[in-house]
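Follow-up to my earlier ticket, as requested here are the two runs.
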Amino acid sequence: MFCLFSTMAQAGRVESVSELLRLPAYCRGTQQIRDISQDPTPIDVYIKKYGWAYSHLHHYCWALNEENRISIARPPDGKFWLGEAIKDIDYVLNQNRNPKFIFLPEMYTTKARILFKLDKPLDAVLWLKKAIEANPRYVPAYSRLSDYYLDQGNTAEAIKILEQGISRSQQSAILQRKLRELRTDSPSTDKPDRGSP
């Protein structure tokens, strides 16, 4: 029993520089990870910059690290560990008191991505919509949501989401490219065959 608890307590913890390098740069200043990154900046500087919830952000970085480990190793109990990653994300979300916390859209989108991997697409869609609500210009949420609708065979809804994202974030080359590709592939936009009567 003690051994199992020990293993679970270490889930997602960053244990090497190679793991650290797979994480976003902002993880380097968080608690527990600072020892590996050897970041000399006092954590208070980051808390002042990003807000109080940054003091808990290492849990989110652990969730990302766990997701990376599972993608690389593909363990048979991967879904269990993805569930643990969700718990780490939820921990930070529960600690946060700032509705404008800069990392919220990314955290919501990451949670959605993991929920898709856990075969919970409807829950995932709700979190993508929360990401868009938190930041209407957050491109990754529109991109992933359009992919979901496309996977469901709902090209019209995928196009609608991309158009919505582009209207709010005009500089998004990714959304514009995806929209061009969808319109090109969509039967309703195909040009008629000039050789037919």
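Run two:
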Amino acid sequence: MSISKRHIIILSSILVLLSIPFAAMQFSSEVNWSLFDFLVAGGLLLALGFSIDFAARKAKSFNNKIIAIVAIVILFLLVWAELAVGVFGTALAGS
């Protein structure tokens, strides 16, 4: 299985995004991520990136692509918000 240019762009974008909190940890004590936090964020971003890529390649019409991508982003934001602050009070938030 070869790695395409799209996959390299997705993976490098994830590394750039994860480098932001890593750099912030070097300059501020307010950002305190553990290895687990980086792994979870990386997994979420990986799922987001490859899900959007899959939807963009497989959807037939432009409208279906937009609907699928918007649904994927909304789902990502809901999971992210739940993990970050426990918006819905599920066990995922640790509450």
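The only thing I checked on run two: The two ends are 41 Å apart (CA to CA). Let me know what else you need.
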